[in-house]
Structure formats: structure tokens, C-alpha cells
Input
Amino acid sequence: MPVLSWKDAATPGHGAGPPGDDRAAGIGELALRHLDAAYNLGRWLLGNEQDAADAVHDAFLRATASGGSRVDGNPRAWWLAIVRNCCLARLAVHGRERRNVALDQVAAEHGRDAADAVVPPLDEPIEERLEHEQRRALVRHHLARLPPEFREVLLLRELEALSYREIADVLDLPIGTVMSRLARGRAALQKAINPAANEVDDGL
Amino acid sequence: MDCRRSGDVPLYFDGELDPAATREFERHLDDCDECRATLVGLDALRRDVRAAMPRVGAPAALRERLLALAAPARRRHWPAIAAAAAVAFAVGAVATSVWRTREATRDALARDLFASHWRSLAATSPVDVVSSDRHTVKPWFAGKVAQAPLVRDFAADGYALVGGRVDYVGDARVPVLVYRHGQHLIDVFVLGDADAAAVAPTSRRGYTLDPLVLGHQPAAVVSDLDAEELARFAAQLAAAEP
Ligand SMILES: [Zn+2]
Output
């Protein structure tokens, strides 16, 4: 008899945009509907908020400039693919080395924000607060060290809640590659952050 | 690591199975400790990643900048967009596009409300919480939406409360009360003031959208009631007291 029901475990989409009829939406409206997803994608690809905002702005102009030449695929994936391309273009201009530090920069920002925002103030004992922040720091540390191609798939899935098909469209990969990268990224991260635990966690 | 179904766990977890396969796999999960443990591990990992990398909302300034570009973009070609953008930035004349924005907002809102209604009609159940009496519905909304709606059952007058759900309108999560009148399902969306102001009577594919009030709360109703049935229902809602 499981203590934790699997129905609880299957959490619904976290970063998914509000459902709406993307196909019927104008390009500008589509982009605005998925602006948070675009902005967060920019943040963790570029490592800072100003660059992320600028890249999204570039992407918006590029998307609207493409007029009606919308692809048949998923509209959100189409828009996020443009955002990603604009981010990569910026990285190419500003130097490759920044890509490697980007996640660490975001992580550092997150560390500050998370300490303020995520942890409930005062009513949580200080030891628990520290413990939670240490856990978050550990996860960020190992995320930053994942091979980039695994990390990107993992973050699009876990943070932005894109479907396999959407991730494949954003990254221009076969869906089978998305699945194997996701599986390998998850396994690697699980192993890194739970070094002591066996794969099967029956403690719950 | 022996269960031959272990490969289905991530597919289930990521929502990639179709409804029939999902139900079938849930029956397997009831009996398989191994797959359940894998699922719990995936869920723990997702929670860890989300806690470590919290998402943030896009800055309001960025949203406004793009919104100013978006409205005219619908009708003009690229050189005009660039020109309009240049002008808008040069003179700070965001106001020039305000009326277009308002029109776009109204259209987007109507689209969200109709889409929500149609989606619910197509779903297995139009509600996430079933009303056995209104005391089950009202507490269900607590914590899910900014403001809990007034919940009243008008079964005695032919409009029975079926239950409630939460849906997105624009970026906001809003409470939806679902009523039944004969064969008709009626959605009542309880809206914030800004959204409520943007609701205009509209009809699409035989369904209508109308602004009304639920007690003191601004709301919108989507249904396929005829005008007379709708008027009677609206009167009931308006007369509801907290
Ligand atoms: Zn199994």
C-alpha cells in the first residue's frame, strides 16, 4: 500500500502556458501568450536578465517579420525555437565562453532570489532553511555540469513542460533523440544529487 | 529494474500516453512497486529541479514593449512594423496603439472563454469538483484562485449546480462554476475587474458569451441557452446573496 499515491506524483505541467487556441492566435498574440516561457529560456541560455529580455525582443521582431509563413508544427515550439536561435546568435557574438558560465550566473542569481522568495520567512526553522538551500545549490551545481545537450532537454521538459514533440521541434531533433537525452539527463542528475541512495527509493 | 513496463514510466509521467494507455498503465501502477518507485523518483527529481531553478515572470516593461508592437503587427507588413516601432519608441507614443490593444484584449478574452467551454464539453468531465452540495464546491476553490467565487445552486429553478473547475483566462487562473439546464451545460467564469470590463456580448458557432454579475462579482457566462433561458439564469445569479 503506497503512502504516496502515484496520482499525487504525476504533477501537471508547470511551465505550460495558459491553454488557448494557439493556432488561431496572431503571431504577436502567440508570442505574448508564451512570453514567460521565452523569457525563462533566454535567462538560462544567456545567464542574465537583460540579455534575455533583449533576445526575446529580437525574437519577437523576427517572428512577426516572418508574416504568415508559419510552419505547420506546434506554434509554441515554433516561437521558442526562434527565441532559442536569437539567444544562440547572441552567444556567438558575445563569445562562446559565456555559454559555459551562463547557467552558473543564473544559478548565482537564483541563489539570492531563492533565499528571499522561495523559502517561507521565519516560520521555517533556520536549520531546515539552510538544508533546503543547500539542496537547491547542490541541484544547480550538478545541473550546470550536465552535458549541455542533456541539460537543455531536461530544462525544457521539467521547467517549461514542453511535450516531447515540442522539444523536438524547438531543438530540431528527432523525437527519439529527445527521449534518450531526457532519460540520460535525468539518470545522470538523479545519480549526482542522490549519491547515497539506490535507484529504488522505498523509504517514502 | 526487471519490470518490462519500466520504459512506460517516463511516458506516463510526461503525459505522452494517450488516455486509454494512461488508464491501462495506471492499473499496472497499482500492482507494480518497481514502476511506482521509478515514478516517485522522477517526481522528486522534477521537484528538485523546479526548486533549484524557479521560473520568473517576464518583466512588465518587456511585455508592454511587445504589446505595443503586437497590435499593429496584425495588419501591417514588416517595414511598417519597423517604422511603427521606431516611431513608438521615439515619441513614447504607446497610446497610439491602445485602442487596438483593447480590441485585441477583447478578442483574446472571448477566445479563451469559448475555448475553455468547448474544451470542457469535449473532456470526460466538465468539472474538476463535483457538487454534492455547494459546501463541497466552495472550499475546493480556496487556495486555487485569488478570490473564491460565490457558490449557489439554483436547482429549484431549473439551473442545477454541477460543480466547478479552474481554468486560464489570459494569464489568470479563474474559477468556473458549471450549471446544467436541461441538456445545456452553462459555464460561469468569475472574473477580475479588468477582464470583466473587456467582456462584450459575442456569439460563436451557436454559443454565446455574455457579461453578467454573480451577486456582487463580475462574471461572464458561456452557453448555448436561448435568450429567454439566459435572461432567467442571469436574474438568478444577479440576485444571489453572499
Ligand atoms: Zn511495472
